Amino acid sequence: MDKKKKTLIGALAAAIVLVIAFVVYITCFDYHIEFSGAFDKGITVEYGNKFEMPKIKAYEKGHFINRKGKEIKCTVDSNVDETKVGSYEIKITAKYKKKTKTQTIKVEIVDKKAPEITLTGDAETTVEAGSEYADPGYSAQDNYDGDLTDKVKVSGDVDTSKPGDYKVKYTVSDSSDNDAEVTRTVHVTDTTAPEIVLEGDDCVMIKKGDKYKEPGYKAEDNCDGDITDNVTVSGDKVDTDTVGKYTINYEVEDSSGNKGTASRVVRVYAPAANVNANAVNPGDKVIYLTFDDGPGEYTSQLLDILDKYNVKVTFFVTNTHPDYQNLIAEEAKRGHTVAIHSASHNYGKIYSSENAYFDDLDEMNSIIKAQTGSDASIIRFPGGSSNAVSKKYCKGIMTQLTNDVTARGLLYCDWNVSSGDAGETKNTDTVVQNVISGVQQHNVSVVLQHDIKGFSVNAVERIIQWGLSEGYTFLPLTTSSPMVHHGINN
Ligand SMILES: [Zn+2]
Fold it and tell me: Separation of 264 CA from ligand 1 center, angstroms?
C-alpha cells in the first residue's frame, strides 16, 4: 500500500469512529428534561372553587433528535391551602440521571366576590313626620370573611321633622377590598293635621245682654310648629242680645295641606227663675210623683187614674216614642207639670259633650213648647245628676252640666224615693211596697217611676189610695218646689 492510500483509510476510519461516537452520544448522553405544560402566568383560583393540582408530566428528551422521550417521575412540593386567600407555590421537580429540573408554578387563591348586605324591613319605607325613625337594621355576610355586620357603615340621616325623601346608604368592604353598597329610601310624609286648641270652653253659656269676648285659640302642627297666626275664624256672629245658639268655626292648614278644624258653640240664654230664691216649703207629708221616659203606651191609662183622684204629678218627658208625642199636650192640659228628661235618652250621645247635651235638651224643649205653648223650666238628667255612666263618654260632664243648667236658670230635680221599676223589679206589688216604705222616710218625697212600664203604672192607684188615707198631699213640681239633688259623681 502506498502512503496515500494509507492516509485515506486512516481518515476514513477516523470519520467512522466519529460518526459512531456521535451516534452513541446522541443516543446515550444527549438529553434534557422537559415538562408537559408551562404555567408562566401562574394559576388563579377564586376562593370557594375547587383547586385542582395541574397534571404535569416530565420527559427526558434529546437535543438534536427530538425523540418522544421517556416519562420520568416528578416530585411535587406544594404549599397551596385553598381554604385561605393567599399566594402559594407548587414546585415540580424531575430528576433523570444526573440532571434535575424544577418548575415553579405560582398559585393565587383570590376572593373577588363582594359581601352581601341584607336589609331588615323594606328597602323603601314611609314614616309619618314628627314620629321617631329608628333604622330597622341590617346584616352583612361575606363568602370568605363571614359575618361583617359590625363593619357596615351607615350614612345619611332621616330628619322626621321635615317631609321629604331620604336615602340611607349602607356600605361594607371585605378583607379583599370587595365593596358592597345598599340603599334604603325613607319617605317622610306629613298626613297629620294641625291641631287647634281652644282656650276656654268649647261650649260657652252667656246670659242675654252680657258681653262676649273670644277666649282665644292656639294652633300647633307636628311639622310647622306654632301656626296660630294662620287660623281663620268664620261662622256665626255672636249677638248677645238675641237668645240662640251661635257656632264659630276655626280652620288652619299646614304646609303639607293638612287641615285642622275646631268649633265653639256660644249659647245665649235668658235666665229663668232662680230656684233658691223662689223655693217655698210645701208643708208636711208631701209626695211629688214623677214619671220618666214617657209618654208611651201606658200614659193615657195613667192620666185617667190621676184624674180619678184629682192627683197632679210631674212628667219628665222624652221623644223616644214619637207616636205618643201628643200626650205631652194632654199632660199639660190636665194640670200636670211637663218637664224635660231627654229627646233621645241616649247616654252615649247626650253625655259626649256639653253641646250634644244642650242640642238634645233644646230639641226636647221645642217639642214641649210646640205641644204645650210654653218652655219647660224643670229638667231631670237621664240617670240622675249622680250618674257615673257619663264618665265613659266625657269626664266631668255632670259637674259642667249641673252648673250650666243652673246658670241658664233651669231647675234640675233628682228623686229621694225609688220605686225600683228601672230594673230591680217588674212586679207591681214590689213597686207599691218600695214607694210606701220610701215615702215614710221623708217629709217631702220625690218618687221616681216610669210611665212606659205597665207594671209600674198599675201600682199608681194603690199608692195614691194609701197616700190619701195616710194624710199625704200629692203635688206637681213647680219652680217654687224644693228640688232634690243627688251628689255629683262625674
Ligand atoms: Zn230616664
Answer: 29
